[in-house]
Amino acid sequence: MYRKIIKQLIDWKQDKNRKPLILEGARQTGKTYILQQFGKEHYKNVAYINMENASDELKQIFSGSISPRRIVQQLELMFGFAILLEKTLLIFDEVQEIPRALTSLKYFCEEAPEYHVVASGSLLGIFLHPGTSFPVGKVDFMKMQPMDFEEFLIANGEQQLVDFARKNVNDLKFLTEKLYDYFKYYLVIGGMPEVVQSWIIDKNIEKVEKIQDTILQTYIRDFSKHVKEHESIRIKQVFDSLPEQFAKKNEKFIYGVVREGARAREYELAIEWLLAAGIARRVNCVKCGDKLPLRAYNERNSFKLYFIDVGLFRYFAKIPTSIVLDKTAIFDEFNGLLVEQYVLQELNKYELFYWTSGSQAEVDFVMQLDGQIVPIEVKSGLNVKAQSLRVYRERYSPELAIRFSLLPLEKNNGLLNIPLYYSFLFPIIESQNQRF
């Protein structure tokens, strides 16, 4: 399946100042698949080393000297073929499981930069053994995310639709119903590659949900596999509380939802674990909407946690697929429980915050864009009355405000409405907003 990150990987390969690459991301986001596909399409051969449950032979290679020349020689003996300069992609998968393999990236950078080395890790940085040396400044980084809505469309055979939409943003009314249908299916299925592939092949929701359940159980097993029992219990408690945190529409993460009487200091490490593992994403609050940079004014103690993937979240929250796929029921009955998660996932490359004035108003997201602060309101249906956004605009008079909803693409008095199913066109729409 097509993934946009392929373009970044090609750019990395062609960069004369290339360093060994670390590809981060949560489990099941497709890191291994995309690296092997990249190697197959752009190199003569691939030397793939899976370090999870590594053999004694593999562990021994990294237990001695981690000189690149020695490592390459040992791997060549193990594979039975030559690892060629510039022509072989060397992949260290789940590299955190052999910390000295991670340390070796420093020496590949300094002593043997002509080798093309990529390391991937789902839990990188969480479970490194004491004394492990991280190759600071000696590696490049990329982040693997679940498939976004555009990749979902392409996976469903709609490359032509995507290409047309990108060239004709203002003339897509005849595609509205089709895009809207795909949008609803995306809320159900989400962007985890194995789940998407199952849907494409079988069109069977029961099989989709079985895979979603397996992925969630894999995450849960990681809680107990890598940390002490008391801490794994706390991670699980935070994890289990996420649907309820959303359903209550709290203005920030509430520790009392995790456990009655819970305190922040008890769960700080648990939250950081989920963030570092890529399972959750944190959005901090800002209470001033006219000061840059936003990061300097965010409030670390007021935040919300979002899930890695809208489809997994839908299954985890036990929202029936029949309601999501209904023409209007989800938007009335669940108060847009999924669409805020969806928009955050679509805007994952941007640094997002949310704004609140306290009890009076709360804007879903604010972002720093081209030197200005842009408030973003997310509405799940056709009823788009937004008291909070009105309060924000009256107080700060931003040049541009954005609303995601089911209304058509239009701009009125500085408010740009973007249909939810146009989210993949956001960079184009935003750059052309003066034309609307």
The low-confidence parts are none
Global shape: globular
What is the radius of gyration computed over CA atoms, rounded to a whole number of angstroms? 23 Å
What is the count of DSSP helices, taking H or I runs of 4+ residues?
A: 19
Structural class: alpha/beta
Mean pLDDT: 91
Total number of beta strands: 13
Strand % is 15-25%
Provide the domain count.
2
**Biggest β-sheet: strands ordered side by side in the sheet:** 7-6-8-9-10-11-13-12
Question: In percent, how helical is the residue content?
Answer: 40-55%
Task: Tell me the major beta sheet.
Answer: 8 strands, mixed
Distance between the termini: 34 Å
Structural write-up:
- The protein is of the alpha/beta class.
- It has two domains: 5-143, P-loop containing nucleotide triphosphate hydrolases (Rossmann fold, 3-Layer(aba) Sandwich), CATH 3.40.50.300; 149-435, no CATH class.
- The chain is built from 19 helices and 13 strands.
- It has helices at residues 5-14, 31-42, 56-63, 68-79, 99-111, 149-155, 159-167, 176-189, 193-202, 205-226, 229-247, 255-258, 264-276, 310-316, 321-325, 329-333, 339-346, 387-396, 426-431; strands at 21-24, 45-50, 88-93, 116-121, 140-143, 280-286, 298-307, 352-356, 362-369, 372-378, 401-405, 410-412, 415-419.
- The strands form two sheets. An eight-stranded mixed beta sheet has the order 7-6-8-9-10-11-13-12. It has a five-stranded parallel beta sheet with strand order 2-3-4-1-5, sandwiched between helices.
